[in-house]
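hiii so um. not sure if this is the right channel but i have a protein structure encoded as tokens and i wanna go backwards to a sequence. like what aa goes where. can anyone help
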């Protein structure tokens, strides 16, 4: 379906499969196994000689519909859905890497991804080097003969640093490695990493794909050949997406473009307003001309996205005052929700780092991250203005 229709149509229609009941909305198949017509058919299904559903650890029609719809949006040949964003990253690395392999990863990736790479995969003999998200030459210098995977996340959390996907793909391919991009912040509506040369796309569907903060899920996308290894891992180890969650994401994808454009418009308006506030030292948003990689971001992404970070004068006390003065915004670590969320990275998402590590990462005590929701932007501004006036 991908070549024939535009993105909006794919978001609503791709992957739909009707049962014999001719339902209009996609059906939710809550069944752990599937019945065969005969012993012979069961044998053929298990051997792979005949396609079809077997057991919901690795086949479920609702999950398949979600995989096909997301694959159509990312322009990917194949998709494997997983129980969470973290299990997508686990399935990707366990499915494609072996002991002795080396990963070059951006330093500015999701905290749990850093822990997975540097603590857990390390115990299984996979090595990792962390490099600057924005200094392309550093990635090339980190390459070793055993480098198999480049791992980037763009824009990064919470500083919204932008990785040059095409440039990283180029370096990775010259050294016989794959580039995986965590596309959580942009979604395929704003950024399509495979079109820019990436080999794999990772999603935490928990965020914008759901869009209303309800369920966890994830996905790995790429070529059929690469996804074979990921699927084999999922089929065997079982970090499987539940059918219910897949159904929630299917519905979420139908409104994804409308939501991403509304999140982006609100985020830009909020970022511009924050830049004019005397208590605000700096605003980090790729859609602002003052962002260090604004030009690259506007080439690579359709908008600046929905995440805005800013630094207030007065360090932690001032930042906490702004957060605690809000009445509307939710003090929570989630993002990609219709409800605006506000976070103090230094004491929450990045609280496990030492003060030196935080300083090196550019996350200082005055920093606040806002995942801009779909409320009226004037109400979000008024909610922040209260704490900024103190
Ligand atoms: C949340 C998040 C993840 C992890 O996803 P879960 O669904 O929480 O496991 C990975 N990458 C990014 C960028 C995220 O924001």
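sure thing!! here u go:
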């Amino acid at each position: 379906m991908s070549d024939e229709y535009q993105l909006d149509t794919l978001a609503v229609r791709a992957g739909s499969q009707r049962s014999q009941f001719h339902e209009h909305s996609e059906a939710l198949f809550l069944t752990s196994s599937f019945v065969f017509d005969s012993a012979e058919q069961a044998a053929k299904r298990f051997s792979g000689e005949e396609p079809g559903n077997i057991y919901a650890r690795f086949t479920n029609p609702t999950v398949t519909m979600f995989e096909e719809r997301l694959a159509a949006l990312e322009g990917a040949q194949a998709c494997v859905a997983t129980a969470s964003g973290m299990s997508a990253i686990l399935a990707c690395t366990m499915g494609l890497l072996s002991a002795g392999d080396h990963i070059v990863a951006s330093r500015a990736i999701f905290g749990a991804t850093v822990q997975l790479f540097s603590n857990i995969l390390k115990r299984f003999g996979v090595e990792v080097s962390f490099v600057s998200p924005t200094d392309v030459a550093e990635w090339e210098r980190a390459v070793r003969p055993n480098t198999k995977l480049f791992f980037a996340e763009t824009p990064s959390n919470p500083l919204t640093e932008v990785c040059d996907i095409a440039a990283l793909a180029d370096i990775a391919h010259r050294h016989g490695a794959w580039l995986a991009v965590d596309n959580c912040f942009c979604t395929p509506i704003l950024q399509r990493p495979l079109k820019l040369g990436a080999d794999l796309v990772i999603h935490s569907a928990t965020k914008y794909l759901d869009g209303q903060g309800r369920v966890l899920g994830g996905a790995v996308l790429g070529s059929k050949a690469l996804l074979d290894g990921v699927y084999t891992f999922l089929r065997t180890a079982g970090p499987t997406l539940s059918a219910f969650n897949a159904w929630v994401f299917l519905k979420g994808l139908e409104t994804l473009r409308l939501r991403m454009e509304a999140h982006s418009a609100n985020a830009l308006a909020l970022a511009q307003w924050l830049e004019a506030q005397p208590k605000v030292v700096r605003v980090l948003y790729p859609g602002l001309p003052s962002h260090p990689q604004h030009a690259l971001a506007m080439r690579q992404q359709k908008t600046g996205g929905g995440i805005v970070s800013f630094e207030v004068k007065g360090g932690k006390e001032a930042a906490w005052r702004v957060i605690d003065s809000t009445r509307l915004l939710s003090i929570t670590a989630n993002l990609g929700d219709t409800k605006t969320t506000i976070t103090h990275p230094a004491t929450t998402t990045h609280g496990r780092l030492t003060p030196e590590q935080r300083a090196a990462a550019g996350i200082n005590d005055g920093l606040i991250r806002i995942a801009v929701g779909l409320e009226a932007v004037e109400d979000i501004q008024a909610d922040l203005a209260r704490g900024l006036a103190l």
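oh and The longest helix spans residues 256-275.
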